[in-house]
Amino acid sequence: MLRGCAGLLRSWALRGPKRGRSFSSEVLHVDHSLPNPSWNEDMRLLFDQFMKKSEDGSWKRLPSYKCNPPERIEDVKIFFPDAKLLKEQMSQAQQFPRSLGEGVGFEYAMFHNHVEDRTVCIFQGGPHLQGVPGFLHGGAIATMIDSALGMCAILTGGIAMTANLNINFRRPIPLCSVVVINCQLDRVEGRKLFVSCNIRSMDEKTLYSEATSTFVKLDPKKKN
Ligand SMILES: CCCCCCCCCCCCCCCC(=O)SCCNC(=O)CCNC(=O)[C@H](O)C(C)(C)COP(=O)(O)OP(=O)(O)OC[C@H]1O[C@@H](n2cnc3c(N)ncnc32)[C@H](O)[C@@H]1OP(=O)(O)O
């Protein structure tokens, strides 16, 4: 069952949702993990490097959308039958890291290596993510870490949620700079997926943050 879910999620994550029928769903299904004018030179350079690595199929770029397609919402209902997934609310719901305007918030693209169970996220944190003046807010960093580790866990194990997340913030990340989040699946124990990551500068010389996390695969029998 969970393997099946992992397969479905993987195909959705790698190919994207079925094309929307209306104009508004077309807009919501714009793939935001492609370069846009707000991306700086470093971000484009890294993106091109990973696209090159993807040519032999070892790495795959993960498309990224503001909204989950209806089939994902149906998947979630299996685990949360009582959740208020009302049509009205869901039409306004957006993935948190994609909810800010172009260039001011989270600009990122993720690539996944299925053989090595690794996910890399290239991330440019915009001016609306400021914490201490000139630097990224710790909560914004945690958001990107959770998102990148989440993709790493979910693409390997199927639908799972963050149960635990430990972050060491080693150096402040300058606002509007580009960093690389390197995630890997460390081990699987039953329903638990242990993942970890580090955030480094483009030249890999600066270690900004390290994190470990446990994701727990949802159990459809539990009906949360
Ligand atoms: C829904 C997905 C849609 C997919 C669509 C795709 C969209 C693409 C998304 C991209 C990526 C997004 C990534 C963001 C991901 C979030 O942000 S998730 C939001 C934050 N997390 C939450 O809200 C989770 C809240 N917690 C819970 O719901 C429940 O505690 C959990 C995590 C589901 C676990 O509950 P449970 O299934 O009842 O687990 P339980 O039977 O108690 O324990 C199972 C095992 O896990 C261990 N465990 C449980 N809790 C913990 C803990 N806190 N620490 C360590 N171990 C623990 C237990 O000890 C146990 O171990 P064993 O005894 O088997 O050795």
TrEMBL record:
InterPro entries: HotDog_dom_sf, THEM4/THEM5_acyl-CoA_thioest, Thioestr_dom. Pfam families: 4HBT. One of its GO terms (biological process) is apoptotic process. Residues 134-206 form the Thioesterase domain. It is found in: Cell projection, Ruffle membrane; Cytoplasm; Mitochondrion inner membrane; Mitochondrion intermembrane space. One of its GO terms (cellular component) is mitochondrial inner membrane. It comes from the Eukaryota. It is a peripheral membrane protein. The keyword Cytoplasm applies. Keywords: Apoptosis, Cell membrane, Cell projection, Cytoplasm, Fatty acid metabolism, Hydrolase, Lipid metabolism, Membrane, Mitochondrion, Mitochondrion inner membrane, Transit peptide. SUPFAM superfamilies: Thioesterase/thiol ester dehydrase-isomerase. It is an enzyme of class 3 (hydrolase). Its main location: membrane. One of its GO terms (molecular function) is hydrolase activity. This is Acyl-coenzyme A thioesterase THEM4. It comes from Canis lupus dingo (dingo).
